[in-house]
């Protein structure tokens, strides 16, 4: 299992919509996340930032995410959530959410 942290901005005028969407994530999207070996996925909000955390229990994150992201329902989900978000200028090439480095963990 590997832990992942990521960060992205949120448009203040879209925060309520984003929270509403995530209070009832589409079941098909949740199923695909599970099939992609994602567990313990959480998103936290502070001011104009979102922090995401998940645990990956598979062996090929890139392949699992490529398969998930190819699903039409996931593309539709991104189309409604994407306009709420503001990617960080410092994110890596090809990233939407900026990956974060884990600097401490306690079991």
How do the SSEs run, as a string of H and E? EHHEEHHEE
Shape: globular
**Cα-atom Rg, whole angstroms?**
14 Å
Head-to-tail CA distance between termini: 13 Å
Unreliable sequence segments? none
Mean pLDDT: 97
The fraction of residues in strands falls at 25-35%
CATH topology: Alpha-Beta Plaits
* CATH C-level label: Alpha Beta
3D structure, described in words:
- This protein has 107 residues and is of the alpha+beta class.
- The chain has one domain: Dimeric alpha+beta barrel (Alpha-Beta Plaits), CATH 3.30.70.
- Helices cover 35% and strands 29% of the residues.
- Strands 1, 2, 3, 4 and 5 form a five-stranded antiparallel β-sheet that branches.
- The two termini are 13 Å apart.
- The mean pLDDT is 97.
Short overview:
By secondary structure, this protein is of the alpha+beta class. The chain has helices spanning 15-23, 27-35, 61-69, 72-81, and strands spanning 2-10, 38-46, 49-56, 85-86, 98-100. The longest helix has 10 residues, at 72-81.
Q: Keyphrases for this structure?
A:
107 residues, alpha+beta, Alpha-Beta Plaits, globular, five-stranded antiparallel sheet
Topology:
Layout: E1 2-10, H1 15-23, H2 27-35, E2 38-46, E3 49-56, H3 61-69, H4 72-81, E4 85-86, E5 98-100
Antiparallel strand pairs: 1-3, 1-4, 1-5, 2-3
């Amino acid at each position: 299992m590997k832990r992942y942290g990521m960060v992205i901005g949120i448009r203040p005028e879209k925060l309520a919509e984003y929270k509403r969407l995530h209070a009832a994530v589409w079941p098909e999207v949740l199923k695909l996340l599970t099939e992609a070996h994602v567990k313990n996925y959480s998103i936290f909000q502070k001011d104009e930032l979102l922090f995401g955390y998940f645990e990956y229990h598979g062996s090929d994150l890139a392949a699992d995410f490529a398969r998930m992201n190819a699903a039409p329902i996931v593309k539709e989900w991104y189309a409604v959530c994407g306009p709420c978000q503001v990617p960080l200028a410092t994110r890596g090439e090809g990233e939407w959410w900026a990956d974060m480095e884990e600097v401490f963990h306690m079991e």
